[in-house]
Amino acid sequence: MSDAREAEEPGTKADEPSAKAEEAGAEAEEPRRSNEGQDDGGRRKYGPLGTTLVIIPTYNEAENIKPIVARVRESVPDAHVLVADDNSPDGTGKVADELAAEDDHVKVLHRKGKEGLGAAYLAGFRWGIEHGYGVLVEMDADGSHQPEELPRLLTALKGADLVIGSRWVPGGRIVNWPKSREFISRGGSTYSRLLLDVPIRDMTAGYRAFRKETLEGIGMDEVASQGYCFQIDLAWRAIKAGFHVIEVPVTFIERERGESKMSRDIVTEAAWRVMSWGVGSRVNKVLGRKDSKES
């Protein structure tokens, strides 16, 4: 069973991004709209964002968790952080508990073992929704997602249902990646975009900000995909459900400490699942049936 330090209720009054967030967002390029055919020409009215919860899944990230949490707290002081630790043998959970004891904006979700990135995020989403958070953010523990760019995502979310921090739109970039990793990432996004017929440029991006209502509307309980494929799955579900998804440029920096969790099995799973979804969706269109939500 998973357990967590009890969170303070975010409160009834919605917390907007800080003034620092507003300033950073104002300087960002105009976000790219990924499903313009489904929005209402910019006339849609969005409610307040509410309190932000940044979910950081960890497995053997003892070296990284303290600095990344500190950067999040500095970049968006109003945000809360949830460390979802999969019982890391290197003591990451203990380090996170120490951070939580010192800062009431930091929470820890202790999970029973290594169950994958997707399962950790889903557990974090559910926990955050149960505790009244209005915005749920995905962020890696290794520093590849820059907390200093989070204000840009939150500002863009004021006019969207899901914001993706994208490496492959104008202004986005990667630092210190080998060509092989870039090929896999670019190729995976292109492959997914074509098979699933969606306009998102960076389908595998893991730096995202969701409104609570978006996660509630995409069938989280039916998501079974993991790892690399999990991000594709959630983006596709959001598009199919008619949510407004936009991409903003971010800089992705390869981790300096620890080991990447990427593996051949993760990539293979994604390729097969995406092919299955794409073929199934086209067959359903021909037969006049709705897409199944199972994944």
TrEMBL record:
Its EC number is 2.4.1.83. GO terms for cellular component: membrane. This is Dolichol-phosphate mannosyltransferase. One of its GO terms (molecular function) is dolichyl-phosphate beta-D-mannosyltransferase activity. Keywords: Glycosyltransferase, Transferase. InterPro entries: DPM1-like (IPR039528), Glyco_trans_2-like (IPR001173), Nucleotide-diphossugar_trans (IPR029044). GO terms for biological process: glycolipid biosynthetic process. Residues 1-47 are annotated as: Disordered. Belongs to the glycosyltransferase 2 family. Residues 54-217 form the Glycosyltransferase 2-like domain. Residues 1-43 have a biased composition (Basic and acidic residues).
